[in-house]
Amino acid sequence: MAESRSVTHSIEIEAPASEVYDLVADASRWPVVFGPTVHVDLLEHGPSEERFRIWAFAKGAVASWSSRRQFDAENLTVGFRQERSVPPIASMGGLWEFRDLGTGAGGGRRTRVLFRHDFTLAEDTPETLRRITEILDQNSTAELQALKNVAELGVPVDELVFSFEETIEYDGEPEPAYRFVHDCAAWPERLPHVEAVEVTEDVPGVQHMEMETRAADGTTHRTTSVRVCSLGERIVYKQTKLPKVLLGHSGSWHFTKAADGRSAITSRHLVMLDPRQVAPGGLAEFRDQVEATLKRSSRTTMEAAARTAALGSPTATPAP
């Protein structure tokens, strides 16, 4: 029988325990709160339990698994258990605990967060144990620090995190539009706002992209992203190098066929603003500016993809 292991990481945060608990309980925000999290699909959700599938970094590679979670808002705990672990892990579960430490020196509430993992290994060797422990240390430390950073911003997270989407329809098939968005290495030749793109795909279906874009004022910006392109009629992504005005940005592209024979592309964005980059009282206007900028960029891409799809070929040159 495989030996059960356990590791616990902790951090103190200058914020009420209930607020820190809420950040962990809402997995839909994880891609912009936690650095290692790329994307989350909520499969089932109820008041005390949920299932989700997650894609996350593990020592630079993107791994995916499904988990169940149990919530206890009264005692401020969140339990979790992977439904099917990825080898060399045989099983993985654990618990988040949020303990009220009372009032801190600054007059606000303090919280100690305990983040415990218990696991067994299918390949129980010293090298495998070392590698898994390193991954847990790296990701747990990053996630706890992210919790601290966000909770201590002094601005309600509901004012910083928001999502939006936009859809365009066209006459044509979904596949050419999908290929247009998938083949991002060709974007500098196809999209006016893209100056350069470098793409690596060491694992099929997982793209690491570095892109330089030109804004309406002529300035250029360089970002890096990871994209998961093995999900059928959609591509999901997370920016890993962000503009300084954002603390997080993730999103997805969806390609669908309607009953009337037309097709549609939908672009979805999840964003976390950095309030330190905003003048006092200007958060609402800043949010509108960020949304308008991202919509303009994604709409340009969607329109070009739709024109290409209307021509029937993923490599055709879009009409002007």
TrEMBL record:
Residues 13-131, 174-287 form the Coenzyme Q-binding protein COQ10 START domain. Residues 298-320 are annotated as: Disordered. InterPro entries: COQ10_START, START-like_dom_sf. Pfam families: Polyketide_cyc. Residues 299-310 have a biased composition (Low complexity). Transmembrane segments: none annotated. This is Aromatase/cyclase. It comes from Streptomyces tricolor.
